[in-house]
Amino acid sequence: MRFRLVRYFTLASVGIFAGVAAAMAYFANEQATFVEGIQRQEIDFVKKVQAGFAKQQEAEALKDLVATHEAGNVTLTRLFANTLWEKDFAPFVAKVAAMPIDGCRAMEDVVAPDGKKSAPKEKKACFAEVGAQIRALPEFKALDAKVFDMMKKTNVLKIKVFDLRGITAYSSEHAQVGEDKSTNGGWQGALQGTPKSELSYRDKFSAFEGVIEKRDLISSYLPVYGAGDAIVGVFEVYSDMTPLLAKTKATSAKIAATAKSNEATMERVSAENLDVVGSMSLKGLMIVGGLLLLLFSALYVIVRRAESIIVQQDKDREHDQQQMAQNEKMASLGQMVAGVAHQLNTPLAFSRSNISMVMDALKEFEAPLKVAHAFARAANASSENVISINIASSRKHLASMEDGGGDVPMLTQMLSDTLQGIDQMHELVENLRDFTRLDRAKIAQFDINKGLRTVTYIARSAIPNRVEVVEDYGDLPLVECNPSQLNQVFLNLINNAAQAIPGEGKVTVRSRLEDGLVRVDIADTGSGIPPEVQPHIFETYYTTKPVGEGTGLGLPIVKSIVTEHGGDVTFRTQPGVGTVFSVFLPVAQEAVLKKAA
Known about the structure:
Mean pLDDT is 77; it is low at 591-597. The chain is of the alpha+beta class. Strands 4-3-7-6-5 form a 5-stranded antiparallel β-sheet. Strands 9-11-12-14-13 form a 5-stranded mixed β-sheet, covered by helices on one side. It has 13 helices and 14 strands. Strand 11 (505-514) and strand 12 form a beta hairpin.
């Protein structure tokens, strides 16, 4: 049935253009709302971005403040250690470290309703007693005075010193002396050599200069290093961050105000853009309508011309495909004829040689046969049992005759070899006749195994001796098919398998009955099919062979013939190991075979 390109193009174009016109009218009506929604989303997005930027800026500023003050506290700790540690704190902390605390720590913590553990009153009282003992040491007052004098007029609000057990050996807030900080994460990190800092807000705080209120503080746990860079204690330093945080918040407020101003500007610009979009939409509808009409006119002319070209190209393509398929068949036939000629030449050559030698040998029997014939005539002419023969005149000729009795077995063997050669040629001709199937109907009940044996026999004539062909056939039912076409399928696959083996290797031809289908496997031990080639092997005209050696029609023809028989062709391959092509054929598919015929 011919495809009416112009008719279908006209109908489709009118329908499509009508739909486009309706869609454009709808979108023109909805465009303002859509653009407004997009702009609203953009404004909201900008708001979120600016808010996120402000939060990030504030967080980074706080992070930088903490890092800066932590570095300052590290420097302060080093100065403090250099000034007071060796002479004053080291002996004092050593005395504290000698005080027993195991009894206090042995008391079990209690679990609160929220699941957190806390020290009971008895445990707190025990450590408070330790603190009282520490404050009672003679060195405590003098050490406390030096610390207060050194930290006077700085932004340091409190200092604590811990021994290596986590016991507060000194605190500028005396009530905290003796507390156990061994479970504190900051103290644990500092004991491992890593400073730990934390920013917090306090309503009230006990500082060097008395109780202060509403302060932002940074507390840092810092390791104290002694000789050989060994950690000998931990400092905790509290610094006042309130002024700096106030500046940071003021900066954030300015950024927020700027963001609000930008949002108002965006709202105004958005309203102006909506008016422009409405005007442009109307102009766009008119322009697109004119362009669609012009496009239809141009395409109509092109399609009319294209239809005539496509019809002609379809005819040419069908003719070319038939010609190429015929060429592929002739190429296969050429390979087969070359192999057959090679196989025929050998028996023909030695048969001709044997016959020539027999003819030459028969000439040597000419004289003895004449003598025998003469003797027979003489015997038949006489009735006597004894005959006298005068050989005087013939003695010379009789002396020249040699005993040729031993040549008869040799001549018999030569003629026997000649008969074997003739039998080989007869077998080859019979297989060739079975291969072509020219003397049978196109569709017939066919023994697949017999066909495979015939094809394999023919294919061996074109396969190099370095490639071994192995046959492994199972019990199969007769299949209704076109034998000639299937022979071409199997020959193509076997030849391809042999050509895929660069050196020595093996081609295995195997048949089985599997799930009601006849399965034929052609396996080789060749180089396999590269991954980039696999998707294209059944494409018409696709070939990896050099120019002049491949048409790209072998496997497409195989696929086409098997498909027409209601079957399928699959393959599995592994580079460097080999490839297996599997042909699946139904035992009976009359409707499909009528089409194939």
